[in-house]
């Protein structure tokens, strides 16, 4: 029972064996050598739940930005444009200083949830420019101001603004005027699985000479301070006499599990001193500077490089001399050492930086440094012609790879959109380590967490133990996985790396992720919250994109989703009415009130969206069971089970459900949530929002061969139609010139045109950039009384005016990419069932088109968010600095969390290429005539 939205990959011509495709073919396992290194270093570790050991659960203040450079992290690391191994032991990233900043620029700065007038918000400009899926080639760009970074001004200005005002951005401060910034471009090219050729190039775009310090850093994650991991790690300088190769400085990294690596830095003639200064310290908390402790664990704390470079503290680091070469020393006990070791070079370190100084980079000039991180002993080839050949080859291979992935008929603009979207998605792969049981109980060598921890956040998820590379929604605002975000990521990822996409979907269903009761973890802030059940849909899409060649993958997922489905039945349909609840379901403030908060005793909210999501999930699992049934008769029975569940949900949703009230309002011709009361009364919450559009997703078209392949399913369906026709309202039929057709659909008959009429009404849901999440009818706010309490809701096309859910996420008007993509695919399914049906678009225009054409129109409007208009501006750039005429800004699209329902301006998280990367999925599918194979 395949969805017509994606053609099975088996119908596509075989992909030419590019070099990157060959690497992928060797790397189906997460532990494959080509997957060992990648951009797995987080963009932000501070302010995460994992690092929060407070009593009140305020993660943002438990480890704030201002302490991030002084405190050792427990669970991960962060940096600028960095890479690390898939275990997160050894990390490399870029640090910068412009001679004016009060702190070394080692990580991205942004406002915490309580500081921003629209919630948390990063205040930097950077772009993931390119990446192959094995990370054999990567490009990253950071825009660094030449003036002092205005940390205080950004905080104060945003604190002074209300929710009805725009956020105050870095570009508003004036520090970027006249292009007074450096573009710092970082490229990585793998000569082999564990051999990175690294180039850092900084270009002065300002009108005057400017000072710049480049400090590429290498360090080990602190695994030794907590009393759980005795494995040792060390960094040791290598004197310039260590090799016959002239003009290099190096540090040797050794780890008990990872082995030995050499980071070698090449001299830069343009620098004040061609040879960089090698600085070493330890990845240990500066307890003296932070807390006034008597001494630190080691002489040189984590912030030693900052203290030495920025503040001139000569005692903060060990400065390696030209003759320092300690690689033959044995490592002394690293745990709990005295503040003063026996000799300045006798103790191995765990953090190092190569300090290149440029006192005056000329306007328009670029300076470049080269490094190599590998397991090889440095030699003549380290920075010889071979280095340049590797970089050139990997860049060319990336072009060849994307020439295959992106259809040839896409123009240069669309190709750039897709490639940038894939780049952001691939750079969003981050190492995620979190053992909840250890986090709850504390570590042997650390103070015990407060008692509140054991009855607070995630206390029932003690089984969860992850140490994997995961696809993150956004590297700064959401540096943690969310289950429904990840499902959408995997659909786009399947176009470039189906093995990784499949691994991600399987991982969330494994025993160390999924709750023993069958619930999938929602997201780090509250694993027990509820995200929409889109896992089965993503599984089916990935299977199709991968060529319909891995039924074992389908079976693995479906067997686990049977547990998850049972959890939904038992926990979210407590009275067995087949009408579901779920809380906010990822849609934050879409309702009159916070749907995640507890209702009065005996009161229940029967949700149109929760019920529609469950019907949608039923059909996706039914589709998977149908695909598997020819190989095993047992799946025929499973298909029958989901048929029964879908028909029961369809009956409950479209007729009269619990307490004798239907989610369908015949007078308004729309679906609404229903609030039921202990006395048996109930009321519809008549707010026209995405909640009432999602029933459109509940549609599937059975294949013509179904009767032959699934005898049990077919017999049961025939019996139901004959003996219980009143229970078969979800079964739709129509007759065309080529015979009769059947489909399973929540919305059929005269209800479908009624819902579509609202969907395509420009005064309601249809915007120039997609489908709004709340009807624009509420430009004049809607008010009502619920349980004697007045509530109101108004159309807010942009940032939220409410503090609900932190205030930086808004479902009261903006366009959200993932649900728009699902609605477009649902229209294709409805059209495949009834190809003669037409719809007026826009409503009232007198212009009709097929449902497939209407779906293409929606896709086109979504892609159009990133296409330059006649004035050269992308709608998604809005009125931000990216929309200026300067090509330095226009060259770089951003992929936002959501988009203004009127203008299309990108809002929320500015780098959420995660699910917004679905634009690449839309661009990389086959032409329309091939989608319905």
Mind explaining what this structure looks like?
- This protein is an alpha+beta fold and 933 residues long.
- It is 27% helix and 20% strand.
- It contains 24 helices and 35 strands.
- The strands form eleven sheets. Strands 6-7-8-9-17-13-12-11 form an eight-stranded antiparallel beta sheet. It has a seven-stranded antiparallel beta sheet with strand order 1-2-3-10-16-14-15. Strands 20-23-24 form a three-stranded antiparallel beta sheet.
- A hairpin with a 2-residue loop joins strand 26 and strand 27 (739-745).
- Helix 14 (608-628) runs antiparallel to helix 15.
- The protein is globular, with a radius of gyration of 29 Å.
Low-confidence stretches: 2-13, 327-344, 927-933
Cα end-to-end separation: 12 Å
Shape: globular
Q: Which structural class do you get from the secondary structure elements?
A: alpha+beta
How many strands? 35
**Adjacency order of strands in the biggest sheet:** 6-7-8-9-17-13-12-11
Kindly report the average pLDDT value.
Answer: 92
Number of helices: 24
Query: Using only CA atoms, what is the Rg?
Result: 29 Å
**Largest beta-sheet characterization:** 8 strands, antiparallel
* Helix content, binned percent: 25-40%
What fraction of the residues are assigned to beta strands by DSSP? 15-25%
